[in-house]
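User:
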Amino acid sequence: MSGYVGILVSDPWLQNQFTQVELRSLKTHFMSMTRESGKLTVGDLASTMLRLKVVGENLSEQERADFIADLYPNLNDEVDFEFFLKVYLKLHAHASARTGSPAKNSSAFLKAATTTLLHTISEPEKASYVAHINNYLAQDGFLNKCLPIDPSSNDLFEIVKDGVLLCKLINVAVPGTIDERAINTKRVLNPWERNENHTLCLNSAKAIGCTVVNIGTQDFIEGRRHLVLGLISQIIKIQLLADLNLKKTPQLMELVDDSKDVEELMSLPPEKILLRWMNFQLKKSPYKKIVTNFSNDVKDAEAYAHLLNVLAPEHSNPSTLAFKVPLQRAKLVLEHADRMGCKRYLTAKDIVDGSPNLNLAFVAHIFQHRNGLSTQTKQISFLETLPDDAQVSREERVFRFWINSLGNSTYIDNVFEDLRNGWILLETLDKVSPGIVNWKVANKPPIKLPFKKVENCNQVIKIGKQLKFSLVNIAGNDIVQGNKKLILAYLWQLMRCNILQLLKNLRFHSHGKEITDVDILRWANTKVSNSGGQSHMDSFKDKSLSDGTFFLELLSAVQPRSVNWSLVTKGVTGLFFDKVLVFNPPPPPPPFFTLFDL
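Assistant: Predicted structure:
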């Protein structure tokens, strides 16, 4: 169970001006300033706040000093954290008032009254997501007392505070992600149980591909609407795009001409495949434009009218394309979709406004209901639709999960394609060894020029050599070209370096002694023995580990509440997790090993 409860301040209004991520960062700055001088006074703030780029870049030190002196004449008064936050907000509001806009280069660190518009939410999107939740979770036994949710109210943000709805929604998006026995579903949860649900939700959301870097458990408790809605949006998007791959929908082979195109198609993210499918169908109609996005290119509803005429001509209305007013055409398009039996949660105004999230969801619903692809797939060998080797596919999956777990700026879908510009590799290196990357010479995506990608990958190789990787005959261009064997070789050494760094950090607890396999084995066996367990492992290759009993006893020794022993079997098949109730498991799917590796 996680012990994280967030940073709290006594003033509720002040608390609501910041997310937990922002509070943690500002708290770090405040503590650093305090340590340097022993104490922080009002007079010190003008100079020390130079480090905060929001106010430091838009106000000179003298301007900050004059502004603070006008508000707080007693410059020798000592400053506590809440006072520091109030001054920060007022300085930011002052900077914004001078520039007439949010401070330049600002992060979302800005919650003064003049900038709360940064965190407004889209009411149409909220209504659409609520309708989706009402539809897919209507039969849930636990949630049926609070469903359906009124789309016009803010009830959604109250219901998600216990974490149950979000966990259930994740399981709708990717079935089996969370063992629902691990969700605390009492009507009244204590703070620890609620925190367990939130942690389980965040870990699981991250595992299925959501970006959760700026979201903490306290944000759910406080019902921060923009963060909650952002996470729900990502979960629903993953659900709607789940079938857009060759494994789930092999008929997508119809979109390509040869095996080289198959490999390209497999490397595309789902939304790009959806666009390609839409344009493929539009070629069968008189519509001659290419749709490149789900916003401006579809807001006149003309592309939708042609698409639905191709997919369901029996429900077409000849007058749809005759209308010159986009709003009228959009209404007829939605009536056409209704006659097809296609679920849709957007309005004609949402189409005309060019809402990218809602339009993407609409097209994804159309694809799920009627994709118009032939049931007779092309005679292309199944092996051509897969990586060259089963082991390569397995290793790629392991490294992909590991890289995504680090919280980089971009979620990767394919190691061999998404790492070719070098940027994600540089971010990963910086996470493994902070400060080792020279960002001044790095090229940030989007990168159109090939030599810029090579520059990034050359730095990746250079840093690898600094970290003592074995990189014989590996050059930056090999990564750019997507050489699978060499990319896997590099990633294996990078991941190993990360684990070794973790072990070195443990030296602090072992009086500087290097941690070895023997030390880890001794610790695990001692932990199990002291808790009354009967299992023992002789090495990491011990075959007795395959029934899972030792790991269960170790988990129970570390956190007694983590295992429900009434569900544990003898582990004859080795698939012990099917019978285990883990209240706060690591992010599913399984991280860097599978049960069969045991």
